[in-house]
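User: Design a sequence. Structure:
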C-alpha cells in the first residue's frame, strides 16, 4: 500500500512539474531491491533506460549493486539484507541532468565503531534502556546508513 501511494504522489508531482522533475525517495523500505513491493508497486528498476522510456513515474533504484553482496544495511540471523533504498525519478537518473547522482557514489556506511564484533559485520545496536540485557549506550542502530553524492550542474 505504501509503495502504491508513493507512485500516486510521484504521478501527481509529474503532472504539476513535468516528467523530468527531480525527486529522491530514500529510507528504510523494509524490503530489498528485488522484492515485489519495490519493483511492481513502487515501479523501481535497475535500468535507467526503463525509467527514461516509462509512461508511469518509474524510479531508478540505486541500491541494486549492493543487493546480494556480503554486506547489507541490515542483518538478521547473520544474513545481510539491503533494506535502505535510494530511488530517483528521471530528473535525477539522467546522466546529463541538471541534478544527477554521481555513478558509483552510493555506499553503505560502515564506520568501524558501528560494526559489532564477531564473525558477521552486523551493526552495533543501541537497544532499549528499558531492556538492560540488550542495551548498549555506545551502540548506533540495527541498520547501517547509506550515502550518495548528488551534483547540481545548473
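Assistant: Done.
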Amino acid at each position: 500500500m505504501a509503495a502504491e501511494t508513493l507512485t500516486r504522489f510521484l504521478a501527481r508531482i509529474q503532472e504539476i512539474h513535468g516528467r523530468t522533475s527531480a525527486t529522491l525517495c530514500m529510507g528504510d523500505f523494509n524490503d530489498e531491491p528485488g522484492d515485489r513491493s519495490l519493483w511492481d508497486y513502487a515501479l523501481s528498476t535497475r535500468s535507467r533506460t526503463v525509467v527514461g522510456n516509462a509512461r508511469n513515474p518509474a524510479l531508478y533504484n540505486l541500491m541494486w549493486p549492493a543487493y546480494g553482496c556480503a554486506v547489507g544495511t541490515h542483518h538478521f540471523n547473520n544474513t545481510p539484507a539491503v533494506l535502505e533504498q535510494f530511488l530517483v525519478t528521471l530528473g535525477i537518473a539522467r546522466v546529463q541532468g541538471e541534478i544527477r547522482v554521481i555513478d558509483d557514489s552510493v555506499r553503505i556506511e560502515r564506520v568501524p565503531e558501528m560494526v559489532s564484533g564477531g564473525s558477521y559485520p552486523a551493526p552495533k545496536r543501541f537497544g532499549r534502556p528499558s531492556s538492560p540485557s540488550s542495551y548498549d549506550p555506545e551502540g548506533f542502530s540495527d541498520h547501517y546508513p547509506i550515502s550518495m553524492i548528488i551534483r547540481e550542474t545548473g
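The longest strand covers residues 24-28. The longest helix spans residues 2-17.
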